[in-house]
Amino acid sequence: MPIQTPFHPRTSELNSSLDWKDWGGYFAANSYNVVNDFEYYAFRHSAGLIDITPLFKYKVTGKDASRFLSRLIVKDISKLKLNQATYCCWCDDRGMVIDDGTVMRFGEDEYFVTAADPSYSWFSRFIKKLDVHIEDVTDSYCALALQGPTSRDILKNMCDADLDSLKFFWTTSTKADGFEFKISRTGYTGDLGYELWIKNEDALKLFDAVWSAGQNYNIRMSGIAALDIARIEAGLIMNGVEYHSSLHALTPEQMSTPYELGLGWMVNLDRETFMGQKALRAENKNGSRWATVGVDINWPDLEELYQKHGLPPHTEAGAWRHSVPIFQKQHVSKQIGYATSGTWSPALKKNIALATIEIDYAKPGTEVNFEVMVEHHRETVRATVHKPQFFNPERKRSILKK
Amino acid sequence: MSKKYDAIIIGGGHNGLINAAYLAKAGKDVLVLEKRHVLGGAAVSEEVYPGFTYSVCSYVVSLFRPHIIRELNLAKHGYDIIPMDASFQPLPDDDLGLCRWGDASRSRREIARFSKKDSEVYGEFSKVMTHMAKLAKEVIDHPAPDVASINPKELSSLLRMGKVFKNLGPELLHMNTKLLTMSSADFLDLWFESEVLKGPMAVSGIIGTFLGVRSPGTAYVLLHHYMGELDGAFRSWGFSKGGTGGVSIACANAAKSYGAEIRTNVNVSHVKIKNGKSTGIILANGDEIDSKIVVSNLDPNRTYLKMIGEDNLPKDITTEIKRFKLRGSSGKVNFALSGVPNFCKKRDGLEFMKGDIAIVPNVDYVEKAYDQAKYGEFSEKPYINIVVPSLTDPTLAPPGKHVMSCFVQYAPFDIKEGPEYWPKLAGKFGDAVQNTIKEYVPDIDSLVEHRQVVTPWDLQETFGLTEGNIFQGELTLEQLLFQRPISGYAKYKTPIENLWMSGSGTHPGGGIMGSGGELSAKSILKEKVI
Q: Domain for residue B163, yes or no?
């Protein structure tokens, strides 16, 4: 049975829909309200607060911490500056992705790693003789994500951090009324936003301070369902949805490489040996089989199909996460890929999806056919390949003061 | 010799800007001229009082066509709508009032306090209106075919529309006829018994018209407001981020991204006409700018009588355009408040106030308000539609403070002292609104930091809406479809060759829809006149 996060006394009070799900062994609110659109809109218009405690969290310390992480992660972590954060992934020696997460550098020899899956064992087995210590702080540190255009104003009203100059993917330590915590300008919504990291003991103090500062800025609790819409609009992939960790995949066909997931930009090939380097170098040279893309599903086509049945067009409420076949434009019987998740994008008024597609069809603008179910009938509508990122507002990276 | 444009658009309201965007996207050389210092027309945000952004005129968005958002990539240019979840109707004597929510079960329980029967019928009513709205959508997304024409194109267009009607089946067709002919109060009587519930529902039928809820034909306007479509879902209203001007700014940014040129503070005197053809425009300062076509985004009255001028028009057309009914019937009062105006202290939280708040305790209330207006007075107890958008979009006011926007009906343009007397009445009108609100928010006076009163006269003088009609012409059946603005010239054309129209005085009419601008541009491009 899942356990409660340290924020549970507050989140359970606010969860009027009693809609909980299991996230990494914790109770996580899927939605706080029966009508949950507003939990999504908070990310885009004011601020949504999410309990992200269930993320797996590790403190990696020791003289060799930089070298160690750089060997395991496809990105050269030793280049990370003090207080900088980075989004990255790590692979097995076949170059197949195990997980993705963020790494933050809190000291010369101190890093903070987050992951979607338990990763202690995988990381630990490579310490060998290095001066590295890994501490699993998943159950002793907790976290809140505050995401949306007013998130900066809210934090400025409850702590002393210099947020006007804190850049995208940088971190800072700060004090508030009687407690200390860390802020990283990171998130999973593709919007202006922060993640707040704190010891379990001070969880409720942090929650109360943020919640009360947020009252003048239309702060709302947001659940996983709302987060899913935002992350698809932002083109952010998810372990277990867009791909399967190579540690869990049953067949090679179920595994993916960073290049195939659109994470090629984070692979630093030319440096000291790292896990998967050889395979990734070969792939970089020879090309990939698959690509991860966005798909813009033609709305008028869908409207027309519904009209045949005398119905107004309909989309699933919220985001969906199941496999949907994608076919070639010319031959509707030839499958060339599959969507892994999708949503009606409230920001763009478009029906969008993230998809895995054969590399020949991955170029933005490529026309394909997309399977839809309309009144119990399988049909296809036209769709266009897009880059995964559909929504990227300027405020995401904005700084107010240099 | 100055440059000659493909098209000059007179008026930088949202329809004019959308028109410009579509024409520029097609590679045309386009110039938009706006008289005011700010773009948007009646869809405008202004910081009238420091720190507070008012949606001065139009204040909610629902009918904006989603395909325009996609075709012009408006989201990228800042189009951003926040949906409203609730519709609250406060009641006197400290009652809990009636709140209708996005959550159907919650609404049903609320309505059941007034009528158990109505609470269950409410869902059925929505279903029928969804069908009706689907039909209306077919009508608003295409230029209106002329029933009197024998042109094959018109006939095929009629046929297409006929098919949609036919597919409705007899029951819904009969309902449609009732909808087109009945009054909104009578139409609602077919379904509901609670006078409280019918109050806020019936007023949808009179917005922007000089009619009462018991006047025949108002049921149609009820539908016009029912078919709001956000996110592919029918019937949902929303706020534009940063006020309704946000919509216009997004349209302007889109137009500019396609290469359109936009100038503000430019006053157009009239259209330059040679041998019945438009050749450009003449500014108030005497300057001339040439263009292949001119698109007027002004209302039909201004377009015909000021931009063209009676001298250039056949007499019968002049007569007909003068008969076009404007009859503005509403005003706006905008408030800057030092705190939250709580319309029902008995309710927990403020969620019930994050949508619209309708001051219309029952059907008779609003019919009485109309009685006063019929004889040239503003309503002492008017119907008020209130929104406090800063509860949802905190950027509109300083932290903890709020903007409150009040749409007020009736405020007849033709006040008995004469319309030019309105500026002298503005204070009294504002007081009547504030006093009406005070019945529900007793501490309102102490919260007011600033008040802006927009009378029908201001709508005409500042925003160019003749007689203060917010839709550039009443949305009554005889002024819709192939008769909007007048029969024979309903397809965005005018009696002057190369002079087109695009505003909400054209089909399909008012509200922040964008259809006039879009359909007009598409007609222009289809005819390859430029």
A: yes
